[in-house]
Amino acid sequence: MSTPIIEIKDVNKWYGEFHVLKDVCLEVAKGEKVVVCGPSGSGKSTMIRCINRLEEHQSGRIAVDGIELGDDVKAVEAVRRRVGMVFQSFNLFPHLTVLENLTLAPVKVAGVAPREAESTAMALLERVRIPEQAGKFPGQLSGGQQQRVAIARALCLKPAVMLFDEPTSALDPEMVGEVLDVMSGLAAEGMTMICVTHEMGFARAVADTMVFMDEGRIVEVAPPAQFFQSPANERTRRFLGKII
Ligand code: ADP
Ligand code: MG
């Protein structure tokens, strides 16, 4: 098998005294789609935030595209270039237009020429099906539209991996579908993805691998068919019983 694009090996993390990630191991291959679920507080956000060093781990190894994350700032920057992240709460810049939200990092951080950044941004807005919103401010858009802008923004630096942390949890129900559609499209194009979500219809359709976390541990890793039909772990079974 080729080298995994994400390697998480024996990772432990504490918030002060609180042991939040316990011996976490996960490998993600290029093109693989991983869906992570589990009860609130089980460490899902913390785990994926460690992958682009929004959080530090205290022991074990995390590497993206062969680059190990640690105190080396250059390595952290190199990993962040390769990883796009989408949060539950959109996190768009409210004082910038949609187009400016998309061109800011390419122009200011990556040194892309403004005109090239704009044409990439417009192509991505087409891809998330809101090119007509380019000149608006985030506050003028619906939640679903804002989240699609956030996805387009994360794609602007051409990441090798996309991380989604409950991207539809803050949306009104009628807007969940349009965001999941965009994510399914990305998956179909071959993007490597880790999605924390409890949208199990999406998970069944898109995931190659399901991961269940509980109390800081990964307790089950399985293909969706097995995961949903015959979960091996009692805690997984109980959890699925509650949410499906
Ligand atoms: P999940 O995303 O699965 O709901 P999180 O990774 O957000 O879980 O949180 C895991 C646990 O760590 C929770 O008990 C949460 O309260 C705690 N936690 C999260 N962030 C912090 C922090 N910055 N400081 C202290 N505790 C935290
Ligand atoms: Mg979370």
Automatic annotation (TrEMBL):
Gene of this entry: glnQ
Transmembrane segments: none
Keywords tagged on the record: ATP-binding, Nucleotide-binding, Transport
All residue ranges annotated as the ABC transporter domain in the record: 6-240
Entry similarity comment: Belongs to the ABC transporter superfamily.
Domain of life of the organism encoding this protein: Bacteria
GO molecular function: ABC-type amino acid transporter activity; ATP binding; ATP hydrolysis activity
UniProt cross-references to PANTHER family, sorted A to Z: AMINO ACID IMPORT ATP-BINDING PROTEIN (PTHR43166), PHOSPHONATES IMPORT ATP-BINDING PROTEIN PHNC (PTHR43166:SF4)
Protein name: Glutamine ABC transporter ATP-binding protein
InterPro entries for the chain: AAA+_ATPase, ABC_ATPase_HisP-typ, ABC_transporter-like_ATP-bd, ABC_transporter-like_CS, MetN_ABC_transporter-like, P-loop_NTPase
